[in-house]
Amino acid sequence: MKLSLNASSRMLAPVMLGLAMLGAGCDQQKTPAREVDKQALAFDSLYMARLYAGWEKQLEAQGHSRGGRGSQMELDLADDTQFRFVKNRLLASGSTPENSPQLFRKLETLRKEKKTGTPGSKARQDRLTTSGPTENSRCGHLLPLADVASADNTVAKFQATGLVTCFDGSDYAYADVTAFAANPERTQFRVLGTESLEEYASSVLETPPLPLSLKVGPEEELFVDSVAMAFDEETGEQHISYTVAESSLVALGAHDINLITVHYPKELIGKMHSDNPIRTCLERGAVAGFLDCDYASGSKDPVTGIFKPFAKPFTGVGAADPEASHTMWFPAAGAYWEPATGAYDPSHLYLPMRGWYQVTLPSNCTLDGLTSDANVVLMERGGRCSAGTMPGTSVLKGSLPFKTPFLDEYDPTKLNAPFDGLVDFGKDCLDMYQNVRLMMRATLKATCVVGGKREPYTRSRYQDILNLDWRNACLAEGTRVTKSDGSQVPVEQVKVGDQLLANGHGQALTVTTVSRGGERKPLVKLRDALGGEVMVTQTHPMVTATRGVVQAGELKAGDSLLTRAGAAKLVGVERVPFSGDVFNFALGTPEELAVATPGTNTMYANGYLVGDSQMQLTLEKQRSSDSREVLARLSGVWHEDFRLHQARSKSARR
Fold first, then answer.
1. What percent of the chain has pLDDT over 70?
2. CB 254 within 8 Å of CB 276
3. Dist. CA 436–CA 551, nearest whole Å
4. One-letter-per-residue 3-state SS of 535-568
5. What does pLDDT average to over the chain?
């Protein structure tokens, strides 16, 4: 089955596309798809592929590379063909105006607003942080495509998924992935398969994997596209986008290579624990005791070349030496990175990235382009931060910090493209501690002579790293904590092995970790009616008299905090700049915590009962999750669609 488009007449050749090829995946796969205009669906897919190619050229002319921040093309519902394309993709997945009335009403409303230029009832909110406007779009749309090893060198195998994620989630989210076998000129499309998924009150949605098998040869290439949409009533966010991925048909066997090898970031400290994350401590972290910072911000002495973690002024990021860092954090030799674009900015999320992209080429090839993208996906809160486009040559563009590629001296058909640098993901993904998925893609385009003919050659590779996180929280230097004997010492004098008073019953806990660093945001200065005061970071846990444990940034005048002298009412809550160091501690040996009352990993700071670093992590994890039932999290206008979705899912499982 092929779709042919004559460039001069624009006439559509008759096509028959079976509904089995266009049915939805996952929990909708047994739901019969509504009858759609099959010729229009195939024609529109080809139309969208050409539209996307033209859009990419516009981006490149503006200095952007494919795979950077512009990898998702916004769909224009005022365009009749694009509107029909979106509706037919939904119909093919099993969604109809009858079983998804709000969804189709939303699309009609957006189309009308777009055509008439009427603004929506709610303005889109582009401010995700209090520090300024977002650098990343509120929703991210990704299309992971990976080739799979094949025992048959005449068959190329792949796997693809569609993914959409929005900051703070969305009421409704949809993504699909559809694969085609296409001729190099993109005038013939043959449908291979499709998967789709919709969710309500979702943070990260990814379709089931779509497995693909195609016969190797230059006559056809793999073309995969994806539609994603997300709507949120509270913010007024409306997201509808389209993206593609492509690959030549090569069997990934023993002699063919298409892989991304990552040396950094990787787990360095605590890798014996299966659930231990790759942790970057951006402004402060553990320097003694139980270490958990694989990477640390710090300062490199320009004279001695020595890197000191969490020392100011920050100049870059260093990796820990896993062999030397047992009870003290030591930097690894040759594992230090500075920002390529200038001074280190503590408000940004940086990740060191070092490794190789290696790919096998046919003989007699000319490299036309090598692009890449890197994204971090917030797995609990939802949202995506893209590294954007790094400066480079006309060949080397993308968000992986590529160096000059070269051919292997022992195998001239293997291209080696090393990358090494500090990648900047901006500031939008720093608000909350949570698990992160790092997604990288490299795409190579070349022109190769095959059988005496010059043929285009495209290879793409996705690589995931799970899971990463980062952390911060502390007390200002000069804050006095109470030891087990009742004496008070400044936080900067506390060391591993000291015992701090944990509560008013005389229980003491041993300091097992000391964290130190800086804080770019203003601290919270708390003052009570009895004259007591303390300065802490905005996310430090404070124990209140009535609300339990809350972050310091949530406190206001009139709240009561627990102190050594009892409850004290706050009369002042201020944000004050602070240029000194901040400290925190992990309290309790395993033996002490085994018999301690839950929630007693606390200490007295200037007389106030506050949590330790472990309580901080627990509190932030709680804030990043929402355990309410779907209907409680979902806007009422989507309740009918959700109930009909549940009924379809239940029917499909029978």
1. 85
2. no
3. 22
4. EECCCCEEEECCCCEEEHHHCCCCCEEEECCEEE
5. 85
Q: What is the pLDDT of residue 283?
A: 84
Q: What is the average pLDDT across 91-111?
A: 96
Strands 221-232 and 163-182: antiparallel
Token representation of residue 593:
């915590």
For 313-404, where are the E strands, in sequence order? Answer: 316-320, 331-337, 350-360, 365-378, 384-386
* pLDDT given at position 231: 97
Of the candidates 74, 77, 97, 82, the one whose C-alpha atom is nearest the C-alpha of residue 40 is: 82
Q: What residues contact 404, with CB distance under 8 A and at least 6 apart? A: 396
Nearest to 534 by CA among 469, 578, 589: 578
Instruction: Read off the pLDDT of each residue in 341-356 and give the average, rounded to a whole number.
Output: 89
Q: Which of 228-237, 490-499, 627-636 bottoms out in mean pLDDT, i.e. has the lowest?
A: 627-636
Q: How many helices (H) and strands (E) does the chain have?
A: 8, 37
For residue 120, name the pLDDT band (cuts at 50, 70, 90).
low
- Retrieve residue 300's tokens: 């490199």
Radius of gyration of the chain (CA): 28
pLDDT at 210 over 80: yes
- Residue 295 to residue 293: CA distance in whole angstroms: 5
Contact 577, 585 (CB under 8 A): no
Measuring CA to CA, how many Å separate 410 from each of 15, 390, 406, 414, 415?
Answer: 48, 31, 12, 9, 11
Under DSSP, is residue 260 helix (H, G, I), strand (E, B) or coil?
strand
Contact assessment for residue 230 and residue 139, using Cβ atoms and an 8 Å cutoff: yes
Q: How far apart are the first and last CA of the chain?
A: 33
Task: Dump pLDDT digits (tens) for 372-421.
Answer: 889 999 988 899 998 865 544 445 666 888 998 998 888 888 999 999 99
Check: CB of residue 264 under 8 Å from CB of residue 355: yes
Element (H, E) at 246: strand 237-248
Contact (Cβ atoms closer than 8 angstroms) between residue 374 and residue 438: yes
For 26, the token pair is 């996952």
CA angle 248, 253, 255 (to 5 degrees): 95
Distance CA 511, CA 176 (A): 50
* CA–CA dist 107, 122 (Å, integer): 15
Contact 349, 135 (CB under 8 A): no
Other CB atoms within 10 Å distance of the CB of residue 217: 13
